[in-house]
Write a structure and sequence with these properties.
This protein has ten helices and eight strands. By secondary structure, the protein is α/β, with parallel strands linked by helices. The protein has a single domain, classed as 3-Layer(aba) Sandwich (Rossmann fold), CATH 3.40.50. α1 crosses α10 and α8 packs across α9. It is globular. The structure holds 2'-deoxycytidine-5'-monophosphate. The site of 2'-deoxycytidine-5'-monophosphate has 14 residues, from α2, α5 and α9.
Amino acid sequence: MVGRIIAIDGHASTGKSSLAKYLSKEFNCIHINSGSMYRAITLYMINNNLIKYVDKDIDYLLSKLSDIRIEFKEVDDKLKLFLNEKNIEKDLNSLSVSNEVSNIAAIPEIRTKLVKLQREIDRSKGVIMDGRDIGSVVFPNADLKLFLTASIKVRAKRRYDELIKKGANITLIDVINNIEDRDHKDSNRKTSPLVIDDDAIVIDNTNKTIPDQVELIKEIVKSTFYN
Ligand code: DC
């Protein structure tokens, strides 16, 4: 994997990050969850009472972008996301962030800032990056492009179980609505919408466990990189 890039894009809650984490261990490379960067900006906007400006005064909201510093730092051998020097990973998957993040991710200036950071990440060990526009915009020349999808029922149940385990007070319907809303907004925004690239390999993981997917992708990597 040295120096190579694997892009994993796909619909919301298809398990892109969990899969990418396993694969990065398998291939001894780094994993970047680009969605966490959009979530970090959203969290900042919520915590600083700025989210209302998305509709009201976008220029004011954008003037605050330079106050936001996003970095990945190694902690116990793992890359952790820091927002203005604070490790905020545990706060990124709340439903309040999930409900706002697609609106933040649709703002072109915010995408430009994050795409620049994504391209600057050290790729020497090889990188697996997951998101929505990794194969189409961030790394159009990626060595391998995967696109994950799954039925809405299975995606919602997986995310619901994850949130309940963390103590969230939500219903399955809340989660279904949020996932459908994000898919719709991510696929229909003007800048860098979620698309299936012509050269992406589509994996429907409705009936596949993570180990099943890891085995499948190891085979794909073998035939793509080493044949
Ligand atoms: O992968 P995720 O669900 O954590 O992503 C959160 C949101 O960020 C999602 O609504 C889409 C957006 N996103 C994006 O627009 N581009 C990316 N590369 C990654 C995520």
